[in-house]
Amino acid sequence: MSEGKFFIATEKEIIDGKASDVYFSRTLNLVMPEKKIVVAEITSSVIEQWINFTGLEEVTNLLEGRNIDVWAIPEGTLMATRDSLGRSIPFIVMKGNYSEIMELETSILGFICQSSGISTEATKVYMACHPKPYVSFGIRRMHPGISPMIDRAAYIGGAAGVSGILGAEAIGIEPSGTMPHSVALLMGEERAWEYIANNFPAGTRTLLIDTFGDEKFKAIEAAEKFPQIDFIRIDTPSSRRGNFPQIIREIRWELDIRGFSKIKIMVSGGLKKEQIQELKDAGVDSFGVGTSIASARSIDFAMDIVEIDGRPITKRGKLSGMKNVYRCDKCGFTTIGLFNEKQVCKDHGEMTPLLKQIIHKGKRTSPKLNAGKIRERSIKMAMELMNQFKE
Question: Which 3-state string (H, E, C) describes 295-334?
């Protein structure tokens, strides 16, 4: 490991296969002389009704330049980990000399396992919040070296904004933030409020009201002194909340009867998706969600050889052969099948193959998509899922 102040792999170390499990490097010399062309696929061993598949851009960057072909489910796709017949779906398929990818398996899986876990939870939070927006506040709960990845995955999954400076830069948006309690402690609450109310752009003027006093009375005070603000924010520790939805109802009532109906309410602080509906019903307009997204359970992907020199072969518990994923655009029936064989829905005819080639002989086959475009795909599919749930 290169010398540095922080325990984090460099880009070069990852590309060179140093961020790998040791058994790959120890057996590489045994494999290299074989020169066999393998097909390796990545599937999930966990049955999930749907996940939001992300991390593919980093995988593409890692594999670009290696003499292999790669196909994948597009990033930001919401999809089950099994087809309609209960068989594991390949999210990525790679073909080439095994020595080209052997030492990179650990990093490939790491890129998609964690990112997909975060984006999946972010989409679940999006569904819970809809139509209210939420901002991802979670990077302080994880290693700062991966903060851009966390924010990107959360944004693709449905966060309307992210708090991280580097994450927002990677996404191509402005970072979102209000004020920390420390500013109220250092400057005094009213002075901090005044600065934000008079200096922040319209739409972002948010006053944190729970540093010293009762939330209801502080909300009234903030609104009366600074009626131009856009939001009041409550970040009260759970130990002091009591009936949190009832506190929100009181604040909303007191603001409304005093003519401050345009001032919105934002809440944050250890929120989980299960709490959001009740808070929405109570009158919350916006949410800050952090730990539950940033520390989301990773998706358990695995990589396996399924073909060697054109011969289907794999370990027990897996399905051999180079495969694609096919979906009926009309009824949604999904099935795996051999890669170049057409699949037909018994009711609606030919099905659509879902794996798209992203690398051909080491070169990208399409330009990079920015996070906003990928997010659009996620949101569209999330809305379709929500409509299905309503039915």
Answer: CCCCCCEEEEEEEECCEECCCCCCCCCCEEEEECCCCCCE
Of the CA atoms within 13 Å of residue 251, those in its CB half-sphere come to 32
CB 122 within 8 A of CB 136: yes
Per DSSP (E only), the strands in the chain are 37-44, 51-53, 68-72, 77-79, 92-97, 134-136, 161-162, 206-208, 231-234, 264-268, 286-289, 301-308, 311-312, 323-327, 334-338, 344-345, 349-350, 352-353, 356-360, 363-364
Contacts for 220 with CB less than 8 Å, ≥ 6 apart: 254, 255, 258
Residue 9 above 80 pLDDT? yes
Give the whole-angstrom CA distance, residue 217 versus residue 209.
9
The C-alpha atoms of residue 287 and residue 297 are separated, in whole angstroms, by 21
The three-state (H, E, C) secondary structure of 267-293, written as one string: EECCCCHHHHHHHHHHCCCEEEECHHH
- Does residue 27 carry a pLDDT above 90? no
Residue type at position 147? S
pLDDT tens for 296-348 read 999 999 999 999 999 999 999 999 999 999 999 989 999 999 998 999 998 89
pLDDT of residue 75: 98
Please give the domain boundaries of the chain with CATH numbers for all domains: 11-116+297-390 (3.20.140.10), 177-288 (3.20.20.70)
Bridge partners of residue 325, in order along the sequence: 336
pLDDT for the residue 391: 59
